[in-house]
Amino acid sequence: MAEIRVNPTRMELKKLKTKLITARRGHKLLKDKRDELMRQFLEIVKDAKELRAALCEQFADVGKGLAEAAAESDERMLTEALMLPTAGGELTVDTKNVMSVIVPRFDYKTTGHTTGPAYGFAFTSGEMDKAVDAVSATAAELIRLAELEKAATLLCAEIERTRRRVNALEYIMIPQYERAIKSISMKLDENERGNQTRLMKVKDMMVAAQLQSRQMDDEE
Asked: For the chain, what are the domain ranges?
């Protein structure tokens, strides 16, 4: 692991301590962000899973109804009945901010012929009518499912980015700062002890010189 190389001075020690405080604060904020993203991600995934399960059941019923309608009616008649739908839809796309993640919001509105099937009832069965109504009813739910799954994908990517940043701070940057601070502190303490030792030696030499000078004065 690469180490931080700086001059062992008190100014650098102060800078490193400031960086360490900032890194620890950023680490805490990112962990809180990651936890909140995970909470919202799990809620969205839960809603999407429940909605998908419900839609699967509805489409299973639709498939069953269409199969029964095909068995009871002529295939050509069914094709002609469904060939020209008069109902349409309008999709409006907006966005919202979820923990600094921009996720889409879809608003779907049905337009055109929206009251009952757009074909005559003379050559179609009741099962056909039920199946068409069921398909029409699922449009808004399908749009909602797409919104949830897209939001889950974006949140998942942001969680992964945040997790990497948290790990980089926790296992790389903060330990590097701590080791550098410890190394500089030990170096400064060593220098301080060396200075004290030199000062004590100088003091002893001065005292010895004074004593020698007094002895020489006494002898004279």
From this structure: 10-181
Query: What pLDDT is recorded for position 122?
Result: 47
pLDDT digits 0-9 by tens, 180-190: 999 888 888 88
Q: With b meaning 16 or more CB within 10 Å and e meaning fewer, what string describes 130-159?
A: bbbebbbeeeeebebbebbebbbebbbebb
User: Concatenated DSSP letters for 122-191?
Assistant: SS--HHHHHHHHHHHHTHHHHHHHHHHHHHHHHHHHHHHHHHHHHHHIIIIIHHHHHHHHHHHHHHHHHH
Among residues 138, 115, 136, 116, the alpha carbon closest in space to that of 126 is found at 116
**Torsions phi, psi for 34 (to 5 deg):** -60, -45
Q: Which residues pair with 103 in a beta bridge?
A: 96
| CATH 3.40.630.30 describes domain 10-181 | no
Of 4, 2, 36, 58, nearest to 178 by C-alpha is: 4
Q: Which amino acid, residue 17?
A: K
With the CA atoms of 153, 156, 158 and 163 taken in that order, what torsion angle do they form, in degrees rounded to the nearest 10?
Answer: -170
Distances (CA, A) of 218 to 10, 44, 74, 213, 215: 49, 97, 139, 9, 5
- The number of beta carbons lying within 10 Å of the beta carbon of residue 68 is 16
Tens of pLDDT, residue by residue over 83-142, are 656 566 788 889 989 888 999 998 888 776 555 555 544 455 666 667 777 777 788 888
Query: What average pLDDT score do residues 43-57 get?
Result: 93
Residue 101: phi and psi, rounded to 5, are -110, 125
